[in-house]
Amino acid sequence: MKDRVILHVDQNSFYASVEMLRQPSLKTVPCAVAGDPANRHGIVLAKNRLAKRAGIKTGETIWQAKQKCPQLILVPPDYRSYLHFSRLARALYCEYTDRVEPFGIDECWMDLTGCPDHDGFAVAEQLRARVKEELGLTVSVGVSWNKIYAKLGSDLKKPDATTVISRDNYPCIVYSRPVEDLLYVGHATYRKLRRVGIRTIGQLVAAGPHFLRTMFGIVGLSLYSFAAGLDTTPVASSGREIPVKSVGNSITTRHDLYTEQDIKAVTYMLTESVSSRLRDAGMAARTVQVSLRDYQLYNIERQAPLPLPSQLCSEIAPEAFKLIMANFRQGQWIRSLGVRACNLIPLSKLNQESFLPQEKRRQAVWRLENTIDSLRGRYGGLAVRRGILLADRSLTGHDIKNENVIHPIGFFGP
Amino acid sequence: MSRPVFVSVLLEMSASGARHPLAITWEDGSRYEITRSLYVGRRAARSAGSGECWLCRIAGRDIPLYYSPLSGRWWMDGKGDPEPAPAAEPYKRVKDRDYKPAGQ
Ligand SMILES: [Mg+2]
Fold it and tell me: Looking at this predicted complex, what is its ipTM?
C-alpha cells in the first residue's frame, strides 16, 4: 500500500502572535499572554520570542515570570480573537482536503492522500505562505506518512518552517530525539522510561514491542508503534464531529482553597458546568475524575466509578467531592481543581423508562436541571446559582461553561 | 513604518451580497472617492492586523482597505510610527486570605 501524506500544522506561539498582529509594537518588547493577575488565573499562556529569550516558560505563574523579567509586558487573553483566527486557519486547510483534524486551538492534522494536491512539501510551503499573507500569522509544518512523525516534524523547526520526515531520513531525524518529544509520552511514562535507561526515541524502538508490553501492557505496544512510525490512526474527517470522549472543567481559584466549604463550593460549580455540557451532548458519564494541584504545583488525578451512569450534577458532584476529600491532606492549599466526566455513553443507550421510585425521583431532578439549563441559556450562566456557591463570590463568580475553551483530548486519558 | 488608520466607509451592498466601498473619510476628516474597488480576499495589513481586503482606486492609485469582522472596523495603512508598546507594570501580589489551617 502506498504511504499516506500527512501534515501537522502548528500555529507558532499562537496567542502571543495574535496579540502582536493586532499591536505590532509588542514585537519589540518581551511580552506574554497571561490570565488576569487579580483573578489568580495568573499563569503564562503564551509568550513571544523576546520573552522566551528571557527564560519565560509557558505554564509558570506571573509572579515567577516577573521575577525573571521585570519589564515583561502582560496581555490578558482574548479567546474570541483566538477562536476567530483558529477557524480561519482551519478553513484554509480545508481547501486542500476534507480530512482536517484539530488538536487543540492552534494545531491540526491534514491527510492529503488521494487529494489533487498531494505533494506534502509543496502544500506545506503553500500553507506557510498563505497563512502569513492572508492571516498575518506563522505556522510550522511537519510532513510525514503518519500522524506521530508529522507532529514531531512540526515541533522541530519553528517558527515559520517546514520539516519533512520521510522513509529515507527518519532514522537520523527521529531516533536521536529525546523520548519526551514523542506525542503521548507524558510525565509518568517519561519517568518510567528513564528508569530503564530509555532516553531517545531510537532507544525506545530498540527496546522492542515485547519488552515495552511487559513494562506498560497494551499501552507499551502503542508506544512502540508510535516510535517506530507504524501508527496508522486515521485523520478524522472535518465533516463529522469528533465524538466526545470526556467532558471536564478546571479552574485556578482567586485564592488557595483550604477549607472543606470552599472546596465543596468550587466542586459543585465545576460539576454544574460539566453536567450541563453532558446534557448538551446527550451523554451520561460512568466515571468521574478529579484533579487537584496544590500551591507547590503537586498534581494528583483520581477517578471513581459512579453508582449509576449519570448526567446530573446532584449525582456527580457528591462523588467528585468525596474523591477530592479522600485525597486532600489537611493543611494542604489547593490552587487548582478539576472535575471531569468520562467513560461516556449516549443517553439513547440507557434504558430510561423505569417505575422504581428512585428512578422517578431521578427523572424529576433531570427535569429540574434541564430547566435551570434553559434559564441560564436565556439569562446567562449566573442567573441561577446554588446557595452553596454564594458563600464566597470571589471563588465562584465564574460562568465556566461559557468561558470554556476546547483543549486536546489526551490519548491515554480516559 | 506604518500605522493603522481607522476610517469611516460609505459602502454599497449589492443584491447579490457583494460589498463595494464607494468613499472613505480619513481621520483628519477629508473625504476620498473610490473610483473602482476590487475584493482580493483576506490579507495581512502592512500596518497591523489582518482582514478582508479591497484594493481601492483613490486619486489614480490602488490602495488596500481592510475590514475585520471581529472588530467591525475598517482601516488603511497610514504613514508614521505605530502606537508604542505599553510600559511594564510592576507585579502586585494579590493578598491571600490569612492562612488558617483546619484543626489549629
Ligand atoms: Mg502552537
Answer: 0.86
